[in-house]
Amino acid sequence: MKITVLGAGVVGTAAAYHLAADGHEVTVIERHPEPARGTSQSNAGLVSPGDATAWASPAALKTFLRGLYNHDLGIKVRLRFDPYFIAWSLRFLRQCTRERLRANSRVKLRLVLYSRDCINAISADTGIRCDERKKGILYFFRSQHSFDTGTDNYRYLAEHWAADRDRRPRPAGRA
Ligand SMILES: Cc1cc2nc3c(=O)[nH]c(=O)nc-3n(C[C@H](O)[C@H](O)[C@H](O)COP(=O)(O)OP(=O)(O)OC[C@H]3O[C@@H](n4cnc5c(N)ncnc54)[C@H](O)[C@@H]3O)c2cc1C
To answer: Parallel, antiparallel, or unpaired for β 2-6 and 25-29?
Structure first.
Protein backbone atom coordinates (compact mmCIF):
# COMPACT_ATOMS: atom_id res chain seq x y z
CA MET A 1 0.00 0.00 0.00
CA LYS A 2 1.20 3.59 -0.65
CA ILE A 3 1.04 5.56 2.60
CA THR A 4 1.84 9.20 3.34
CA VAL A 5 2.78 10.22 6.87
CA LEU A 6 2.44 13.90 7.79
CA GLY A 7 5.12 15.07 10.22
CA ALA A 8 8.65 13.81 10.87
CA GLY A 9 8.64 13.94 14.66
CA VAL A 10 9.21 10.82 16.74
CA VAL A 11 5.67 9.56 16.14
CA GLY A 12 5.68 10.09 12.36
CA THR A 13 9.14 8.63 11.80
CA ALA A 14 8.49 5.62 14.05
CA ALA A 15 5.15 4.96 12.32
CA ALA A 16 6.82 5.28 8.90
CA TYR A 17 9.63 2.97 9.98
CA HIS A 18 7.24 0.22 11.07
CA LEU A 19 4.98 0.64 8.03
CA ALA A 20 8.01 0.38 5.73
CA ALA A 21 9.19 -2.68 7.67
CA ASP A 22 5.75 -4.21 7.01
CA GLY A 23 6.32 -3.74 3.28
CA HIS A 24 4.38 -0.54 2.58
CA GLU A 25 5.65 2.25 0.35
CA VAL A 26 5.87 5.18 2.74
CA THR A 27 6.47 8.89 2.12
CA VAL A 28 7.02 11.22 5.06
CA ILE A 29 6.15 14.90 4.51
CA GLU A 30 7.57 17.49 6.90
CA ARG A 31 6.96 21.21 6.74
CA HIS A 32 10.37 22.02 8.24
CA PRO A 33 13.58 21.47 6.26
CA GLU A 34 14.68 18.75 8.72
CA PRO A 35 12.99 16.05 10.82
CA ALA A 36 12.38 16.49 14.57
CA ARG A 37 12.06 20.27 14.57
CA GLY A 38 8.78 20.28 16.53
CA THR A 39 8.18 18.92 20.03
CA SER A 40 10.56 16.04 19.38
CA GLN A 41 13.47 18.47 19.21
CA SER A 42 13.11 20.02 22.64
CA ASN A 43 11.96 17.34 25.02
CA ALA A 44 13.89 15.99 27.99
CA GLY A 45 14.54 12.64 26.31
CA LEU A 46 13.36 10.64 29.30
CA VAL A 47 12.11 7.14 28.51
CA SER A 48 12.31 6.09 32.09
CA PRO A 49 9.85 3.71 33.80
CA GLY A 50 10.73 5.26 37.16
CA ASP A 51 9.44 8.57 35.81
CA ALA A 52 6.08 7.17 34.69
CA THR A 53 3.96 8.99 37.27
CA ALA A 54 1.12 10.67 35.38
CA TRP A 55 1.14 14.46 35.20
CA ALA A 56 -2.54 14.78 36.05
CA SER A 57 -2.64 14.55 39.85
CA PRO A 58 -4.08 16.40 42.85
CA ALA A 59 -0.77 18.35 42.94
CA ALA A 60 -1.06 19.19 39.21
CA LEU A 61 -4.49 20.62 39.87
CA LYS A 62 -2.90 23.22 42.21
CA THR A 63 -0.03 23.82 39.76
CA PHE A 64 -2.53 24.29 36.94
CA LEU A 65 -4.50 26.85 38.93
CA ARG A 66 -1.34 28.64 40.18
CA GLY A 67 0.01 28.65 36.61
CA LEU A 68 -2.94 30.82 35.60
CA TYR A 69 -1.61 33.82 37.51
CA ASN A 70 2.02 32.98 38.47
CA HIS A 71 4.11 33.11 35.30
CA ASP A 72 7.38 32.26 37.11
CA LEU A 73 6.34 28.60 37.34
CA GLY A 74 7.90 25.98 35.06
CA ILE A 75 4.40 25.08 33.86
CA LYS A 76 2.33 28.02 32.76
CA VAL A 77 -1.27 28.02 31.64
CA ARG A 78 -2.41 30.74 29.27
CA LEU A 79 -6.17 31.09 29.35
CA ARG A 80 -7.71 31.54 25.95
CA PHE A 81 -11.16 31.07 24.53
CA ASP A 82 -10.27 28.16 22.35
CA PRO A 83 -12.97 25.43 22.53
CA TYR A 84 -10.38 22.70 21.97
CA PHE A 85 -8.18 24.03 24.82
CA ILE A 86 -11.17 24.36 27.17
CA ALA A 87 -12.36 20.82 26.41
CA TRP A 88 -8.81 19.50 26.88
CA SER A 89 -8.46 21.37 30.21
CA LEU A 90 -11.72 19.91 31.51
CA ARG A 91 -10.61 16.40 30.53
CA PHE A 92 -7.23 17.00 32.22
CA LEU A 93 -8.81 18.32 35.41
CA ARG A 94 -11.11 15.27 35.62
CA GLN A 95 -7.97 13.09 35.76
CA CYS A 96 -6.50 14.99 38.74
CA THR A 97 -7.84 12.67 41.45
CA ARG A 98 -5.67 10.24 43.38
CA GLU A 99 -7.56 7.26 41.86
CA ARG A 100 -7.01 8.48 38.28
CA LEU A 101 -3.36 9.28 39.10
CA ARG A 102 -2.83 5.68 40.18
CA ALA A 103 -4.63 4.17 37.19
CA ASN A 104 -2.94 6.48 34.64
CA SER A 105 0.51 5.96 36.17
CA ARG A 106 0.09 2.21 35.88
CA VAL A 107 -0.85 2.51 32.19
CA LYS A 108 2.07 4.89 31.63
CA LEU A 109 4.45 2.46 33.34
CA ARG A 110 3.50 -0.28 30.86
CA LEU A 111 3.73 2.16 27.97
CA VAL A 112 7.20 3.36 29.01
CA LEU A 113 8.48 -0.21 29.41
CA TYR A 114 7.14 -1.03 25.93
CA SER A 115 8.52 2.21 24.44
CA ARG A 116 11.95 1.53 25.85
CA ASP A 117 11.90 -1.94 24.26
CA CYS A 118 10.87 -0.38 20.93
CA ILE A 119 13.70 2.17 21.03
CA ASN A 120 16.21 -0.57 21.85
CA ALA A 121 14.82 -2.76 19.02
CA ILE A 122 15.06 0.08 16.45
CA SER A 123 18.57 0.86 17.67
CA ALA A 124 19.59 -2.79 17.33
CA ASP A 125 17.98 -3.12 13.86
CA THR A 126 19.38 0.08 12.35
CA GLY A 127 22.52 0.80 14.33
CA ILE A 128 21.14 4.30 15.04
CA ARG A 129 22.31 5.40 18.45
CA CYS A 130 20.59 7.90 20.68
CA ASP A 131 22.48 9.61 23.47
CA GLU A 132 20.97 7.36 26.10
CA ARG A 133 22.18 7.47 29.67
CA LYS A 134 21.44 4.79 32.23
CA LYS A 135 22.73 6.41 35.39
CA GLY A 136 19.35 7.34 36.82
CA ILE A 137 17.72 10.71 37.39
CA LEU A 138 18.34 13.03 40.33
CA TYR A 139 15.23 14.74 41.71
CA PHE A 140 15.20 17.66 44.12
CA PHE A 141 12.19 18.27 46.35
CA ARG A 142 11.68 21.66 47.92
CA SER A 143 9.41 20.61 50.76
CA GLN A 144 8.76 17.63 52.98
CA HIS A 145 5.27 17.39 51.49
CA SER A 146 6.49 17.14 47.87
CA PHE A 147 9.16 14.64 48.96
CA ASP A 148 6.54 12.47 50.68
CA THR A 149 4.23 12.67 47.65
CA GLY A 150 7.12 11.83 45.30
CA THR A 151 8.31 8.82 47.29
CA ASP A 152 4.72 7.60 47.58
CA ASN A 153 4.42 7.71 43.76
CA TYR A 154 7.77 5.97 43.21
CA ARG A 155 6.82 3.27 45.72
CA TYR A 156 3.59 2.65 43.82
CA LEU A 157 5.50 2.26 40.52
CA ALA A 158 8.07 -0.01 42.16
CA GLU A 159 5.28 -2.25 43.50
CA HIS A 160 3.94 -2.83 39.97
CA TRP A 161 7.24 -2.79 38.11
CA ALA A 162 8.04 -6.50 38.10
CA ALA A 163 4.50 -7.61 37.16
CA ASP A 164 4.19 -5.03 34.38
CA ARG A 165 7.69 -5.74 33.06
CA ASP A 166 6.82 -9.43 32.65
CA ARG A 167 3.39 -8.75 31.09
CA ARG A 168 4.37 -5.98 28.64
CA PRO A 169 3.92 -6.66 24.91
CA ARG A 170 7.05 -7.24 22.86
CA PRO A 171 7.91 -4.85 20.02
CA ALA A 172 7.44 -6.20 16.51
CA GLY A 173 10.79 -7.12 14.94
CA ARG A 174 11.87 -5.71 11.60
CA ALA A 175 10.32 -7.67 8.72
C1 LIG B 1 9.26 20.41 27.37
C2 LIG B 1 8.90 18.99 26.96
C3 LIG B 1 9.58 17.94 27.52
C4 LIG B 1 9.23 16.64 27.16
N5 LIG B 1 9.93 15.60 27.71
C6 LIG B 1 9.64 14.34 27.34
C7 LIG B 1 10.39 13.25 27.85
O8 LIG B 1 11.31 13.42 28.62
N9 LIG B 1 10.05 11.99 27.45
C10 LIG B 1 9.05 11.76 26.57
O11 LIG B 1 8.79 10.59 26.25
N12 LIG B 1 8.32 12.77 26.06
C13 LIG B 1 8.60 14.04 26.42
N14 LIG B 1 7.88 15.08 25.90
C15 LIG B 1 6.80 14.77 24.97
C16 LIG B 1 7.37 14.41 23.58
O17 LIG B 1 8.39 15.32 23.21
C18 LIG B 1 6.24 14.47 22.55
O19 LIG B 1 5.18 13.62 22.97
C20 LIG B 1 6.72 13.99 21.19
O21 LIG B 1 7.88 14.67 20.76
C22 LIG B 1 5.60 14.21 20.19
O23 LIG B 1 6.07 13.75 18.97
P24 LIG B 1 5.23 13.96 17.68
O25 LIG B 1 5.95 13.27 16.58
O26 LIG B 1 3.81 13.56 17.94
O27 LIG B 1 5.16 15.54 17.50
P28 LIG B 1 6.28 16.54 16.90
O29 LIG B 1 7.66 16.17 17.33
O30 LIG B 1 5.82 17.92 17.22
O31 LIG B 1 6.19 16.27 15.38
C32 LIG B 1 5.13 16.72 14.58
C33 LIG B 1 5.75 17.14 13.27
O34 LIG B 1 4.71 17.36 12.34
C35 LIG B 1 5.06 18.46 11.53
N36 LIG B 1 3.83 18.93 10.96
C37 LIG B 1 2.73 19.37 11.59
N38 LIG B 1 1.76 19.67 10.70
C39 LIG B 1 2.28 19.39 9.48
C40 LIG B 1 1.76 19.49 8.16
N41 LIG B 1 0.52 19.92 7.93
N42 LIG B 1 2.57 19.14 7.13
C43 LIG B 1 3.82 18.69 7.36
N44 LIG B 1 4.37 18.57 8.58
C45 LIG B 1 3.60 18.92 9.64
C46 LIG B 1 5.72 19.42 12.52
O47 LIG B 1 6.55 20.36 11.87
C48 LIG B 1 6.53 18.46 13.39
O49 LIG B 1 7.85 18.26 12.90
C50 LIG B 1 8.19 16.40 26.23
C51 LIG B 1 7.52 17.49 25.67
C52 LIG B 1 7.87 18.76 26.02
C53 LIG B 1 7.15 19.92 25.38
So the answer is: parallel
- Dihedral sign for Cα 117, 48, 108, 84, please: negative
Half-sphere exposure of 169 (CA within 13 A, CB side): 7
Q: Is the CB of 10 under 6 A from ligand 1?
A: yes
- Report whether residue 46 contacts ligand 1, using a CB cutoff of 6 Å: yes
3-class SS of residue 118: helix
- Among protein residues, the one with the nearest Cα to ligand 1's atom 20 is 40
Say if pTM beats, i.e. exceeds, 0.70.
yes
pLDDT digits (tens, 9 = 90+) for 5-60: 999 999 999 999 999 999 999 999 999 999 999 999 988 888 888 889 999 998 88
CA-to-CA distance for 13 and 138, rounded, in angstroms? Answer: 30
- Domain closes at, from 12, 28, 43: 43
Residues 53 and 39 in one domain: no
Show the domain range for 82.
46-167
Residues 95 and 140 in one domain: yes
Determine the Cα–Cα distance for residues 109 and 161; give it in Å rounded to an integer: 8
Q: What angle do CA 24, 25, 28 make, to 5 degrees?
A: 115
